[in-house]
Amino acid sequence: MIVRTTAEITDTERDVADAAWRSKRIILAGDGVGFSFHETTINANSVSEFQYRHHVEAVWVVEGSGVLTNLENGDEFKLEPGTMYLLDGHEKHRVTCHEQLRMMCVFNPPVTGKEVHDETGTYPPSILE
Question: Which BP terms from GO are recorded (predicted)?
């Protein structure tokens, strides 16, 4: 059994941030359960672009508001508490945050915790090898 709190993860190697977002990585590949689980916060009035070419990500919005844009076809979706989105096609996407978003995210395969988004918004494949 694994029990962790976000308080004990804060300001450790499991707490990763840049200017627009912060990811508290609660479950990682090293935990050996086949997925990783994160609490991600995106700052109000920010815009971030991501693409996970090597992962499937499920996101559950629990706080805040914004817009998710599929950059491959232009579709837009309102983000608010209770919204879930699944990036099962490795879609390049943009999150435009109006009010600070807090989201719970699951990655498969699990991330190791050492990943950093590259200039295209994805994790380099060398991290996964």
Answer: ectoine biosynthetic process
Q: Alpha-carbon distance 15 to 26, whole Å?
A: 9
Spell out a b/e string for 99-113, using b for 16 or more CB atoms within 10 Å of the CB, else e.
eebbbebbbeebbeb
For the stretch 14-48, pLDDT in tens is: 999 989 999 999 999 999 999 999 999 999 999 99
- Which domains, ranges and CATH numbers included, belong to the chain? 42-108 (2.60.120.10)
Rounded to 5°, the CA angle 107-103-65 comes to: 140
- pTM, two decimal places: 0.88
Q: In this structure, are residues 75 and 111 in contact, taking their beta carbons and an 8 Å threshold?
A: no
Mean pLDDT of 87-116: 92
